[in-house]
Every structure is written in structure tokens, then in C-alpha cells.
Amino acid sequence: MADAVLLIENLRKRFGGLVVTDGVTLEIGPGELHAVIGPNGAGKTTLIHQVSGTLSPDDGRILLNGTDIMHLPPDERAKLGLARSFQITSVLPRFSALENVALAVQARSGSSYRFLRPAAGEAELNDQAMAALTEVSLDHRADILAAHLSHGEKRALELAIALALEPKLLLLDEPMAGTGPEESERIVTVLKKLKGRFAMLLVEHDMDAVFALADKISVLVYGRVLASGTPHAVRNDPAVTEAYLGEELE
Ligand SMILES: Nc1ncnc2c1ncn2[C@@H]1O[C@H](COP(=O)(O)OP(=O)(O)OP(=O)(O)O)[C@@H](O)[C@H]1O
What homologous superfamily is domain 1-81+167-249 in, according to CATH? Predict the structure, then answer.
């Protein structure tokens, strides 16, 4: 695909004798939500780390909107529009929800607010931050310290922070981990709303969430892509069922 937002080609990574990424090829088009699933230890998290830049692959290519980012540090990748949410704590507990998002808006905008009068600059920052909080239905909790938010609300706040960065590609690392059914449903609703605006790479164990959200699914087993395609095709692939040892993919 010429206009792939993310193109991963033949990615390889080993830890000593253990091959954790074994020739992974995967691409995500504009606005597409691509889920990577697979049994424990399949290499999903290490794949996310290699895309975000916290882990160096041994071989292969990673292109973000056509730019080879393979050897760029995480902050350079972030400047090109790569954001990551969940399984990292980007939330500052002693700041309010609004302040947390305003900091992200400021980080994205660099020094552009320096040239506004302080009050005007702050109002503009807060407006943008509030817009991101509204997107994740957290606007009514804007003034609450992040430390006092529920687990599900913190997850929503992390999403708002990612949104404020206006990403080209959002990496979602197990957004449902540690959440109850109600919170999971809330995160799925928010992600559904955001779908189509930017590309997303989702790693998730919760199959209900995966099948509710994904446009494409890749199944990773022992570091290799066993199957890749639409949710329907993947669900009906006998090799996938076998890899999950008969667990139902629903
Ligand atoms: N820093 C490391 N050094 C050595 N081995 C590692 C390291 N990080 C991960 N591994 C190993 O690499 C393999 C893949 O791990 P990874 O965490 O990517 O799997 P996963 O698919 O995300 O699993 P899970 O679903 O349980 O989160 C595992 O066997 C893991 O033990």
C-alpha cells in the first residue's frame, strides 16, 4: 500500500537464543485500526516497543508515512506523529485532569504559545485540553486531581493526552488490562468514536474488544504472523483456532 501510515517489513528481534520477532510484516492504512493478538509471550509487547522506539530491532524496516523511523529515538518518532497509550504512566497524579492534557497540548505546540499574552495563551491551551477531555467524556472531571480519578477514568485521561498530541498513529498497549466490564465498555465506546481519525495499532487480550474494534487483525505466534486479515477471515482460519488451542475467538 503506497499510502500506508505504518509499514513494518521483515522485522526481526532476538533476545539471546529466543527469537521474539521473526520476520514480521504488517501495514496499517490511514484511519485503520489494526489489532495484534496472540497467546502470552507471542511477542506483541516487544513489537509495540520496537515501533515506539524503546527497543531496537535487529533487522527489517519500520516506515511511518513513508519515513524510515527504524533508527530514530522515541522522541523523534513522537515528533513525526507517533503516540503511545496505556501500559505507560503518562498521567501526573498531582495535576488535574485538565492540566494533564494542557501539558500535552503545550508539548505538541512547542513554543507557539510564548507569543500570546499569558492569559490568552493559557485560555487557548485550556480550550484545546477541554476539547480532548470532552472527546473521552471526562470533561465533567476536568478539575479533579488525576490521583483521585478511578482506574477507568485514568485510562480515559491517558487517551485524552494521546489525542491532544494529534497523532498520525496511536499505539494502544492493552487498554482493557485491569479494567472491569463497565470500564472496558466505556473504553471501547471512546475508541469507536475515535476510529477513522488516525491509524491505530492495538494490542489486546480482550477478544470482545478486539472484534468490536478492529478493521484488520494479525495473529502473532512465537514472533511470527500466523494470519492477517479481516476479523471474519481471522476468526474462520483453522490455523488460528489451533494456535488458541480451541479457545473461541468471539
Ligand atoms: N528484555 C527481555 N529480555 C529477554 N526476553 C524478553 C525480554 N522482553 C520480553 N522477552 C521475552 O520475549 C517473549 C515475547 O514477550 P512479549 O512480552 O512481547 O509477549 P506478549 O505477546 O506481549 O505477551 P503477553 O500477552 O503475555 O503480554 C517472551 O518469551 C518474553 O519472555
Answer: P-loop containing nucleotide triphosphate hydrolases (3.40.50.300)
